[in-house]
Structures are given as structure tokens and as C-alpha cells.
Write a structure and sequence with these properties.
Layout: H1 3-9, H2 11-23, H3 31-45, E1 51-55, E2 63-68, E3 80-85, H4 94-97, E4 101-103, E5 106-108, H5 112-131, E6 140-145, H6 153-165, E7 168-171, E8 181-185, E9 187-196, H7 211-223, E10 231-239, E11 249-258, H8 261-272, E12 282-291, H9 298-313, E13 320-323, H10 328-334, E14 339-340, E15 347-348, E16 356-358, H11 359-375
Parallel strand pairs: 3-6, 3-7, 7-14, 8-13
Antiparallel strand pairs: 1-2, 2-6, 4-5, 5-16, 9-11, 9-12, 10-11, 15-16
Helix pairs in contact: 1-11, 2-5, 5-11, 6-10
Length: 376
């Protein structure tokens, strides 16, 4: 069967489901909204008879692991873990200003590209495997994260544990412009640097220790870290109380992006050894958030080569690419499981008012995902 032609015939139903999920707005911070959207996705999969494991959460939406064991599947191979997320960055009510609509080959809507389209791909791929009697080589695990956009310790823990038991990981985040998938992603550290000085009257600053000046020196030192590809954004800063008082306290929050575990080790070592520049001042740095880098390991390269050959047989070209942002695939890759990311559709406007996906890519990537699930 021509699987791409099959999914072209399913295009209307795929768009119908995507519209339903997009209109069920699901910002990460709104547990009720996220759970409602997850319930709709689960309803679509229920008739396939999977084993559904609910991982209840208090502060975020519930997490779900859906296990598929199609008839005839070989059980000696470790499962494929498919990563998706249901949450978006868009608050409830955005749909009134950014309605779901189709114009030409572009499908617009808040969260359509990032990444409800990826979830629709997974659902329709599994439906095709079920209805067409296809026999995958492995069991298929589908994980639905409810807090990918903000990061969450529990979801990270679940993904890492599942990845360690899986044979490979496929993540359905959007593809790169031009169709490349993501085999490398930068890691991310968010650190808060604090300085403590000594207050004094502004007319006699020599009697005090200016904490803001100390923070400025520390940030300049930070920017001089010699790591290839390192980016540093000073996102938040504060300190002092009055213009006529030498500030006793100051702080800054920085976002650092890096390519490798070796870079991470150097950054952590620097933060541990941070020293004040002014006599009598104190400084400390603490970790607020962390996402590991996704590295193109030998195992992931072998997985990519297999996926590329499957794509070639389908008349598609698959290219490797990289991204400066992290994803759940970074968590999976960090535990050593071969991983591919960006298998969702192409599009533009991530987290922006023009968020949209390209319909032909939506269909092609669903067909490719189905083949990967069956043949890898």
C-alpha cells in the first residue's frame, strides 16, 4: 500500500481532530484545561485497545503512558518510545484572537504546530497500524507530557525512566524549516547569581561595597567563558533600594545554552568556584532550571541512517539538523537511548502569533512516522 496516499485520504479527519485539540486550549499552568484536552486525545485512542497508565499530578496536568502491543508484534525487541506533549504556551482565550483556520497549505492556530499536530500524527499512525493490520517489530509506548513548555521534575523523571527501558526514542516536535529533523539540541542552564555588599550613604560610597557593581563584574566574567557555541542571556536583574544608598544586595538570572556534556561540566565547575571581585563582598550562584543537551551519538547516528533509508524508500529526503532549544528528546538522549527529534510537520511561528504548520508536511510526516514505527 502507498502509505502517503492512504494518509492523503485521511487528511480531512486529521484536520478535524487537530481543530478539536487546538480549540481545547491547554496552557501548562491550567491543569483543568490540560486534562480536558488529554481526555479528548485518549478518547480517540481508546478503541484501539491500548493499556493506558495515568500518572496523576496535583499541580500540572496528568501524565499518560499509552502502551500498544499490536497483534503479531515481536516482543524480544525493546519498545519504541514516542514523545508528545499536550500543553502549550498560550493562555485560555487566545483562540478568540488566533482562531484555527486553513489557508492554502498553511494551518494556523495556537499550539497547532507546537505540538498538537505531533499528537495527531501519533494517533493516526497507530490507527493505521491497527486498521491496516500492520505488524511492527516492537511494542509502542506513547508518552503524553503535560508540562513540556515549562519543564517539570516529575515528567522529566518519567521520561528518563521510560527511555532507559526503550530501544529507541522518536519525538514529534516540529521539524526544522526545509524538513530536516533534529539530531542535536543545545542544553540549558538557568542560574541565579546573588551578591552581598555593604550599604553606605551615596555621598561616601567608599564606605560601602556596591552589590550591583559586583553583579556587573560577575556577568562580564561569565560572558568571557570560552565555550564554542555558548550563548548567555541576562534575562532578569535587580538590586538596591534607593538611589542615595549604596546597594547591599543584587541579583541576576541568566539563561545559558551549550552543546555538550563537557560544556555542562565546565559551566558547573565555574559556578561552584565563583569568587567576588571586591574585598568584603560575597557572591553565590544557584541552579534554577536544567535541560541536558541532545548529542548526536554513534547510536543516534545509526538510528538516523536507518530512518533516512526508510524515508528514501518512500521518496522522501531526511536531513540531520540542530536546534538551540531543548525538548523532551534531550532528556531521553541524556540517558543514552538513541533518539530522533523534529519528526513533526514543518511550519513557522513557534510561540508567536503566526504559528502555523504546512499541510503537505503534516501528511508526509505522518506516513513516515507510521513506517518508522513498523520497521525500526
Amino acid at each position: 500500500m502507498d502509505i502517503q496516499r492512504y494518509f492523503m485520504s485521511q487528511q480531512g479527519e486529521m484536520l478535524k481532530l487537530l481543530k478539536v485539540l487546538v480549540q481545547l486550549e491547554s496552557p501548562t499552568q491550567d491543569k483543568k484545561a490540560v486534562d480536558n484536552c488529554s481526555a479528548e486525545a485518549l478518547k480517540q485512542m481508546a478503541r484501539l485497545g491500548p493499556k493506558i497508565k495515568r500518572i496523576a499530578q496535583k499541580e500540572i496536568g496528568d501524565l499518560y503512558l499509552i502502551e500498544f502491543s499490536p497483534a503479531g508484534v515481536k516482543t524480544s525487541e525493546k519498545p519504541i518510545l514516542v514523545l508528545t506533549h499536550i500543553d502549550t504556551v498560550w493562555p485560555v482565550g487566545t483562540i478568540k484572537k488566533m482562531p484555527f483556520y486553513l489557508t492554502g497549505d498553511k494551518v494556523f492556530g495556537p499550539g497547532a504546530l507546537d505540538m498538537k499536530a505531533g499528537l495527531v500524527q501519533a494517533i493516526f499512525s497507530l490507527q493505521a497500524i491497527h486498521s491496516l493490520g500492520m505488524v511492527p517489530r516492537r511494542k509502542i509506548w506513547l508518552f503524553i507530557n503535560s508540562a513540556e513548555e515549562t519543564g517539570n521534575d516529575e515528567s522529566h523523571k518519567q521520561i528518563a525512566a521510560l527511555a532507559q527501558k526503550a530501544g529507541l526514542v522518536l519525538c514529534l516536535e516540529p521539524g526544522l524549516p526545509g524538513g530536516a529533523i533534529k539530531v542535536k539540541r543545545k542544553g540549558r542552564i538557568v542560574t541565579r547569581i546573588e551578591s552581598i555588599g555593604r550599604s553606605a550613604h551615596a555621598s561616601t560610597p567608599e564606605k560601602g561595597i556596591n552589590a550591583i557593581e559586583e553583579i556587573m563584574v560577575q556577568l562580564q566574567r561569565f560572558k568571557k567563558l570560552k565555550l564554542k557555541g555558548l550563548t548567555l542571556n541576562i534575562g532578569l536583574i535587580g538590586g538596591g533600594d534607593k538611589a542615595n544608598v549604596v546597594p547591599e544586595k543584587a541579583w541576576a538570572v541568566c539563561d545559558l545554552r551549550f552543546w555538550s556534556s563537557a560544556d555542562l561540566d565546565r559551566i558547573k565547575s565555574y559556578l561552584k568556584k565563583i569568587q567576588p571581585s571586591k574585598k568584603g563582598a560575597k557572591v553565590k550562584a544557584g541552579l534554577q532550571n536544567f535541560t541536558p543537551s541532545m548529542e548526536f551519538t554513534r547510536a543516534s547516528r545509526e538510528l538516523f541512517d536507518k530512518a533516512r533509508k526508510i524515508a528514501i524508500d518512500m521518496g522522501m529526503e531526511l536531513k540531520p539538523g540542530q536546534s538551540g532549544g531543548g525538548s523532551d528528546a534531550s532528556i531521553a538522549s541524556h540517558v543514552g537511548t538513541p533518539s530522533l527529534d523534529g519528526l513533526g510537520p514543518e511550519g513557522e511561528g513557534l510561540h508567536a502569533a503566526n504559528e502555523h504548520l504546512l499541510l503537505p508536511s503534516f501528511i508526509q510526516r505522518t506516513a513516515l512516522l507510521t513506517k518508522l514505527l513498523v520497521e525500526l
